Amino acid sequence: MKYHQLFVYVFITFSFHLTISSSKRLTHAIIRGEVRGNGSLPNGDKNAHLLVELRLTRNDRPRSIARIKIKLYTNRTVSSFNFPFKLKYPLAEINPHNTYTLSARILTEKQAKHLIINVIETPSWYHNIDKLSLLAYKVTQLSGTEEAFTSELYTNKQSGIYTCAVCNSTLFSSKHKYNSGTGWPSFYQSKIEENVATHTDEKYGMIRTEVHCSKCKAHLGHVFDDGPQPTYMRYCINGVALQFYSDKNENK
Questions:
Q1: pTM of the entire predicted model
Q2: Among this protein's residues, is 236 annotated catalytic?
């Protein structure tokens, strides 16, 4: 049966694999996503498969960095499809100055059908993840929580700004910091609103509002509505997810 593509798109999210070694360095990253589409799949072709591939694009001569094959054999006609994938690739192969292409293709005995090509430009802050401490990695990349009253920033009373520990985006100001008594650095508002994003967190049987860096998606903490005036908000932030710059760097 001839494959006829009607509509195809890919959802991509990033997560990172931590290799426990003597150097405690990240060695691989993982792209998790889904290939979805409307249209028929090869019917009765036992060799048909979906190929998801991460390639380096240089001088119009792509080089494969990592690939994964998903078997597509089916003996029935379908009008739509949804295939999740997890593609693991070595960080040593990634250069922030290069451009990478994520492609998805359906391969059969008779043809190779391209589904989508999505260009991924590695951000400049990407390799900062490799430099994080184990605790900072657990908090920012795995949505962990540091122990209360353990961060030096909790009692910090200096004037300055607080930035993301991963990408250095400006997040909070000492002008909005206050002593919440919780054991974590707390702020009643962000310094630059668009740099701080939220979403609903339903883990552990609770419904909370999670806070993360809008640029690199690093987990920061949670926000509650029991703060002081004028916002009545309490941004409860893990100190290990922040970097502090004193007033001389306020305009950073």
A1: 0.56
A2: yes
